[in-house]
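stuck on whats below:

***
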Amino acid sequence: MQNKASQKLSPFKKPTQEQASLINDAQRFISQHIHDKTPAVYVITGDAGTGKSVVLSQLFYRLQQASHDEKNVLWQTQNYFMVNHPELLKVYRQIAGELPGVLKKSFQRPTSLINRMRKDHKTFDVGVIDESHLLLSQPDHYNNFYGHNQLLSLLELCHVLVIVFDSHQVLRLKTYWTADRLKELLSPYPQKWVHLNQQFRMHADDSLIQWIDHFTGDRQLLPLQESFRLHYDFRVFSDAEKMRQTIVTQNCKVGLSRIVSTTGYPSTLDGGKHYITEGKFKLPWDQYNFTATPWAEIPETINEVGSIYTCQGFDLNYVGLILGPPVTLSADGKKIEIDTSKITDSESFKQRDDMSDPHEILAAKVQLNLNAINVLMKRGVKGLYLFAHDPALRQRLCQQYQTM
């Protein structure tokens, strides 16, 4: 029986009319350009929760079926599905193990595929890339990537790329992308851009989605309409431990409920446990997950705090989000501010050689933090709970919305 994450991404899940139309259009684009001398790119954009990964999963399944059809233009094509996210890759490989004609080895990390193809002097036909905003845009020796840009490296190895891009989910300077940067890089290639609009993950009123987008966009704290509580459980907590207890209760009822946090607490990849402490609340950060099961689906992780690296791309039923020390309220009480001096995720903000302007670097750090908050706030299908470390922000949220 498939787990929740696999069910979401199953190629047998019935697509919406918008998704089905996009899948058909992408197939036509691939067929039209599969034998071109110049590689072509099909770009799918859309905010978190609009079903981009669902589209890719179904598209890739169709491509693999077509590669076994002698009458199809894609017969005998060599195609790969890529995602630069180890937890999400586990889900795709789980799905592949249950499908006829689809092999687990067809799902790869970009660096692994690039290095193997270059070593063997080989190319492939179609590449499908989920979360392309996670592609490295500079060399990264830690991840054994010695090129200058993973997207360009892949374009040198294939005929067609289909990529999902969401500039609001860019989280690291070494994967620093904007829509303008992407368009400039792709300008020499035949391309088509399409956009998914409808939000599917959160069973929430549009006013709550807009509230989140303003919180992480222009950083305004908008008023919320009462209608947002009709179908969605949104709460603000003045006590992080009470929020944890409520998440545990929800996890016992419906499963897939977890505490997550932004940066701002001790965190080092040294194999040891590093704790987030807020009053009586004390839990360790998520540990590196060596199993084949995604972090959010391991029962014991109810006793850990998830990060952007374990939760991006996943649905949770209920999410309890700790807004850490960098997230503060402005002195006039009107806006959210990001104190970059309190960022503890040093891996995300390693300096880039092509970014020397201190104002540009500061703006990027602020935006990457806001992107992370947006992604974490949109994990919960049924509910979102908030606790803010900053006393002024916590008081403002509790006064304006709901105190628990």
User: Anything to note?
Assistant: Residues 206-400 form one domain. The chain has two domains: 4-195, 206-400. The mean pLDDT is 87. The radius of gyration is 21 Å.
